[in-house]
Amino acid sequence: MSTTETQIAQTQLVTVFLCPGKPLKQNLANYPQVLIIELEYSKEGTALAQHLRGVDAIVSVASGPGILAQYWILNAATEADVRRVYPSEYGFHQAHRAPGDPGARIIPISLELWDEKERFAEHLKLHPAVEAGNLEYTFIGAGDLYDQIPDRAFLVPWTSDCEFYEVPVVGNRNARADWSCTRDVACYVVVTPIKPAISANAYLNFPSEMLSQHAMVELFRKYARRRKVDVRHFSMDEAHRFIAQPQGAPQQIAMNSSIPVDFYFVQARPQTRGMCWRE
């Protein structure tokens, strides 16, 4: 652990709000400076506000339908006089355009949620508490996470212990894209309040590496300890077809990933065109 991480660990108490029954509670039980509070934060605004009193900053990692809960979280934050809010941002917002489309199209689950993120960002930036100087925001941009949770084994096979690996590669394998490690992103987020002059009411980008899919595969082969690493290539035509008809994609994708098939290919398509990088 670095000096900065050690200092943060020694001085900060982290309060984690979880919906009841989340398995993450067990993983956090061994951290003495983590206070776990279980409640339906999208429904219990007053209770949430009470727990937030004395909290300096809120970091949202909401995903899926939980994105909408950020409105209730923001209301509770302003009631409790929280100073800084970090919305659930992190990834890229990519509009999907199929061949021949005059404009972007909405894909269920994926682009609808990106649109909800954009709407909440507008709501937050124009919030009266922000305009009055009583609340600050920070948006953190990262690359695609290369160490995602194991239930996405098809997308990031190196997170599993196997004798044989098959890595999905979409389109141009040599196009470079930004990638991030979750630990890097977490450390970056928690140190940003130390320098409010550059982090308050700002968009900050923090990728860990810029690599092509081919370079990722070669690195994996280097450290796979003689275990076989193959590539499963999907053409751009296949990507567009599976976005339009997810049920036609190989069953292995849906069976080994919590991410919907259409979302995966919508996200992967810009990476193969060199469009996923932070300025």
TrEMBL record:
GO terms for molecular function: oxidoreductase activity. Keywords: NADP, Oxidoreductase. InterPro entries: NAD(P)-bd_dom_sf, NmrA-like, NmrA/Isoflavone_reductase-like. It comes from the Eukaryota. The keyword NADP applies. Coiled coil: none annotated. Signal peptide: none annotated. Residues 45-233 form the NmrA-like domain. It holds the Pfam family NmrA. Belongs to the NmrA-type oxidoreductase family. Isoflavone reductase subfamily. This is NmrA-like domain-containing protein. It comes from Laetiporus sulphureus 93-53.
